[in-house]
Every structure is written in structure tokens, then in C-alpha cells.
Amino acid sequence: MAGPAPGRRLRLRPLAALALLLALAPGLPAARAGQAPRPAERGPPVRLFTEEELARYGGEEEDQPIYMAVKGVVFDVTSGKEFYGRGAPYNALTGKDSTRGVAKMSLDPADLTHDTVSQTGLTAEELQSLDDVFTTVYKAKYPIVGYTARRILNEDGSPNLDFKPEDQPHFDIKDEF
């Protein structure tokens, strides 16, 4: 019995080499007959902060990270300790959701709250300032470590089905569970 024609053998070798390359190449998904593709890998789970828990990260303890929330997103601002640490100019913003204070550029204790509606509301300029500072300062400089309960849960404690984590591709969410 004669073997395969010489021309046919040459065509199979490049295909076999390609199959071998694809199977062994790092970072490429391996497809095997009868197996479903693996789901995309997920980052660490989102950490939920209650008001009481967030208050523990207000910069008072030297060995603790410093956290603050804006728009329900909790940031680790420890790298800005000279601004947010104990006795620093913006320490009043830490350990809580200070959305209103950030929007109004205010350190008045009455403004250091998540509430942007019930007091007097915010002007269009303050809302724009809030969005700008949220994106160009906090999301750009400080890693997201979680979300406030108000951002993830409804008032009755049920999950907020509209919740979507913030995109921060240049940071990895810290895993502190």
C-alpha cells in the first residue's frame, strides 16, 4: 500500500504545526472537543462597606488604610496621606461618603454626606464639578476598594439590580476579604 502523496504531506505539516502552536501558546484559550469554553476570569468580589465599617478607615489609626467614598464608590486614598491623613487638610472627607462635600468643594460637616438631593440639592455646576473630580481625581489617582451599601443595596436591603461596578482599568480592585 502506498503512503500519502508527497504534496499532501507538505500541506498537513503546516496545519499540524499551527494546531500545536495554538495548543501550546500561553494566553490563548485551549479548545478541546466536547468541552465548553472556560468563562472569562473575574476579579475579586466587590466589597460592601456599611457606614460603620467605612468610619473605621478615617485615617485615625497609623497602621490602617485611609478610605473615603464619593458617589458610593470607596477609594483607598492612603497614598495621599499628606492630604487625607490625621490632621491633614482633607481628613474630614475620609471614613464616610463625602459626595456632597466634594461636589460643593466644602468641608462643612453638614456637607460631608452622600446626600445630594434632600438638603437644597446641588446646582448644575456642582453636579458637573462632582463628575469631573470623581473621574479626574479619584478614579484616576486612587484604587477602588469597594462600594457603600447605599450604592449596592436598595433601602429595603435587597440588591440593587441596576448596580454596575465602576470601570478602572489601570487599577486592580484590592482584595481585602
From TrEMBL:
Annotated Gene Ontology cellular component terms: endoplasmic reticulum; extracellular region; membrane; mitochondrion
GO MF term set: metal ion binding
Signal peptide: 1-30
Cytochrome b5 heme-binding domain ranges (all copies): 49-149
PROSITE patterns in alphabetical order: TAT (PS51318)
Top-level taxonomic group: Eukaryota
Subcellular location per the Swiss-Prot or TrEMBL entry: Endoplasmic reticulum; Mitochondrion; Secreted, Extracellular space
Alphabetical UniProt keywords: Acetylation, Endoplasmic reticulum, Heme, Iron, Metal-binding, Mitochondrion, Secreted, Signal
Region (Disordered): 156-177
Basic and acidic residues bias (residue ranges): 163-177
Pfam families given in the database record: Cyt-b5
Family to which the UniProt record says this protein belongs: Belongs to the cytochrome b5 family. MAPR subfamily.
Quaternary data: Interacts with PINK1 and PARK7.
Protein name according to UniProt: Neudesin
Organism name: Panthera pardus (Leopard)
